[in-house]
Write a structure and sequence with these properties.
CATH architecture of the largest domain in chain A: 3-Layer(aba) Sandwich
Oligomer: homodimer
Strand order of the largest sheet of chain A: 2-1-3-4-5-11
Strand content of chain A: 15-25%
Shape of chain A: elongated
Distance between the termini of chain A: 71 Å
Number of domains of chain A: 3
Number of helices of chain A: 12
Helix content of chain A: 40-55%
Largest interface: A-B, 52 and 51 residues
DNA sequence: GCTAGAAATTAAAACGTTTGCGGCATTATG
DNA sequence: CATAATGCCGCAAACGTTTTAATTTCTAGC
């Protein structure tokens, strides 16, 4: 499995290997005749440029990293699609890394990506502990946060306004006449969760609705977690009339729990999620949720990343995207 | 953003850079004292080894590639999870590449991956045209096919027996009393589709049921495709009592179409899918389907890949996994 | 036919590692 | 004390490219 190198071609064509390099890359003065000859030869010999040797000298690898916490949540593949498409359009490839919500894995991947000298990293962090990512951005390689708004100011990010998303959802529920609204969140510490929780509580406060602490529960951004927490909620004596779920995946678990409990969605309890993953629109599901521009998020992340890479600009870029309520069939007036 | 190299450390420690290399990698004779000194220094200076320079000399990158046709189909993320976990356990990282069912992209990615000199590739091919993949396996880098059984004999693959899967599903439908069973497939040319189709037709033949050609339709492994083809099917005059869908995603589209048409699943038409993606078990969906060990597929793929990498064995390895019917609520006796 | 200048090509250094070989201390052996 | 063995470490080549500077070849004008 010995691969053919530029030197092999040079020998075969009886020229220096500098000439071969130029003939192949094209962006240097070289006669048409030799260029053609060499290219033909290269193809015949089955030459594939060694990107890693090239990376060593040019200092760029035309590679990006994308770190996601859960590839099993359809939200992230959609973002990934945007990341990938935009990267490809610009001649970049992407390393997709999945942390399974483990901080340790996130750190490992960060190190590995930098070790491979990727030109930039987009990351949807696993937790609120992002010091390693910030440090990397400052000293080693540009990073932009996807679907996450860091508490620290001088980071790049593109995110949907989670606070506003929650506001919209809560206001909608209130407009439907609900007063007893529970919140089943994901990881309590995560920024996404914090903003959504804040939007929810603020709206309730604004309408002078007292917050029952038993109505606020946290777990993980997973179906199982939504299911479990809702069970707990339903066993207690004061059952809410509506539930705001931390995201669509959680919402699916919430609904499952409600129906297993013998209650109906939306007749007994209304449910709204966040994200609008593709399965939310299934006829059988028809989940009311707050849409988040997933694909666009991915695209924009790469755009700002490439910008940073190109001009070395260290100033933080922030992009806030607009959420949108999409009303389907899991909510009902009271 | 100048990164610190082994030479910088050597200078600081006042030793040769060979010594630094040895101190860091550890697997060479070196005194404990200098080893400690150098490691401490390296940490202080924020050294991250340049994996690409290392790869250039050692000829291996500790990196695998995984090419999938559609990251948006939950089937693949689950396989990817298995691939990743097993790779990580063995000190490898994986490049996840998504072709969006485009052969051209598959070829591009293959070239890019080889350019980056990944140590091995696992691929779920986009089409039945796999010559480029086979060629790569023979001359450049070991590749194993995931969830795909090539027509050519001397390839590595780990797949679930698609023929058997279809047999199981068809037999089940027959046992329920169905005689008018349609098949809504994915890409007609794909191997997966061919085996499933064959299993289906063979079973019907065995039971002396004549195959209506209008009952067999092909499109893509996508929800939209299943939806569209089912619409066509329902408009025709001879409506089937059961539909075998090419996979779960298609099945979801099939069900959508049936219900939009004013019919009920399973009361008017039974539906069964393949794969058992996580959403199939949702309370609202409860899709009867044929389970395929997705995570295991991923794991096994990298196991055989690593084996090939380690001992350079060129003999093809085949692994067939067992499907399993999981009965839920989209089928009914007649 | 000469020469200036442009065009095409080559030589060689550089990128950041690993590693085989050789050399020098240090210790063990006789 | 001389020698052999051992343990550490340095030198330098190698990996496959790109690229700058130098050199050769070509073209054209006189």
């Amino acid at each position: 499995m010995m691969s053919v190198t530029i030197k092999d071609i040079a020998k075969a064509a009886n020229v220096s290997y500098a000439t071969v390099s130029r003939a192949l890359s094209g962006h240097s003065e070289i006669s048409d005749k030799t260029k053609k000859k060499i290219r033909k030869l290269a193809k015949e010999m089955g030459y594939t440029p060694n990107a890693i040797a090239k990376g060593l000298v040019t200092k760029n690898t035309k590679t990006l990293g994308f770190i996601v916490p859960d590839i099993t949540n359809p939200f992230f593949p959609e973002v990934a699609q945007g990341v990938e498409d935009c990267a490809n359009r610009n001649g970049y490839q992407v390393f997709l890394c999945n942390t399974s919500w483990k901080l340790e894995k996130e750190k490992q991947y960060l190190k590995a990506l930098y070790g491979k000298r990727v030109d930039g990293i987009v990351v949807s962090p696993t937790s609120n502990d992002i010091t390693h990512l910030v440090e990397a951005d400052r000293n080693k390689v540009p990073v932009v946060f996807a679907a996450y708004r860091p508490a620290i100011a001088d980071c790049n990010f593109v995110a949907t306004d989670d606070y506003k998303s929650a506001e919209i959802a809560a206001e909608y529920l209130l407009k439907l006449g609900h007063r007893k609204i529970a919140y089943i969140g994901g990881q309590q510490e995560s920024c996404t969760n914090k903003y959504r929780l804040k939007g929810y509580t603020d709206v309730l406060k604004k309408h002078d609705i007292s917050l029952s602490p038993s109505y606020i529960k946290h777990g993980a951004f997973r179906q199982q977690s939504g299911y479990q927490l809702t069970k707990e909620l339903l066993i207690a004596n004061d059952v809410p009339t509506a539930i705001l779920a931390g995201n669509d995946i959680i919402a699916l678990g919430v609904i499952q729990a409600i129906e297993e409990f013998g209650l109906d969605v939306p007749n007994n309890i209304s449910v709204v999620g966040f994200d609008d993953i593709s399965f939310a629109s299934l006829d059988k599901v028809q989940l009311t949720t707050v849409f988040q521009p997933k694909y666009t998020t991915g695209e924009l992340c790469v755009e700002v990343l490439l910008q940073k890479i190109k001009d070395g600009d260290q100033n933080p870029t922030h992009k806030m995207l607009e959420p949108e309520l999409v009303i389907r069939r899991t909510c009902k007036g009271i």
